Amino acid sequence: MKKLLLLPAAALLLTSCTVMDVVGPRANGEIMALAKQASADWVFGDPAREQWREMRQKQSEELKEEALRLCGLDAQGQTPASCDVSYGDTDLPAEGNASAVLEHTVAAADKVPEESVDLIVAQAIDALTLSPVDLEPVTETVSDAADTEAARDMLARENAVYYGLGLALAYADADLRERVGELREASHERTAALTRVLDIADGESLVPAAGYEFAEGYSEPANTEEAAQLVKTMQSDLVAQWRYAAAHAESATWRGDAIRLAAHAQRV
């Protein structure tokens, strides 16, 4: 007599799923934790801080898109069903602030995939720029050799920009002189912070190189319009370099400092 093969109900349910649905990739936990915090800041944020809430909403969507990207695609070119970026029945955390974003980012940067670090660091920088950036916490001396080199490189770049801003003053009108003054003061504040990071004397940090030459794409201004363009380009390039330094930091200490310094440069 033949016997019937009885399958448990759970097994019957699995027959309608693919293997990828069961053992497929899951959304990265660290990325999703950051996404949930961003969503909480948007949902529970002060309605009066519309810019902050809109930024955090956008950042939560960016993080979920990053989680989906990391999951990859199946043979049909679709995101695997196992890669769920919904929050399900879990509660959102309490609302945070820009300082909390910085703290969470520094903690997560060593845990997320290397290819995701640029995104989360960029988000932390942007979050900090919505209010004045405090550089007083930038005090600890870096010990990692690569971070020390990066900090010295940024100090040299700050000095070069400071020098270039001085050249622009010769052709500046009243508005541009005011702008250059703001940028030079802000640069001096970052330079002072870097002296603490590098544990060097303040006088040493302000010593420019023996001579500067304009790199390709730059030229000494000959009028107010060219001076204004030079100032804009130098500032844009400096911000880009600070963002790069923050994303490629080796230690948590320097990463936190570089994020603050990048936001400070971006905000001015």
Automatic annotation (TrEMBL):
Signal sequence, start to end: 1-21
DUF4439 domain sequence ranges: 151-264
Assigned keywords, A-Z: Signal
Record's protein name: DUF4439 domain-containing protein
Keyword Magnesium in record: no
Xref: Pfam families: DUF4439
Classification via InterPro entries: DUF4439 (IPR029447), Ferritin-like (IPR012347), Ferritin-like_SF (IPR009078)
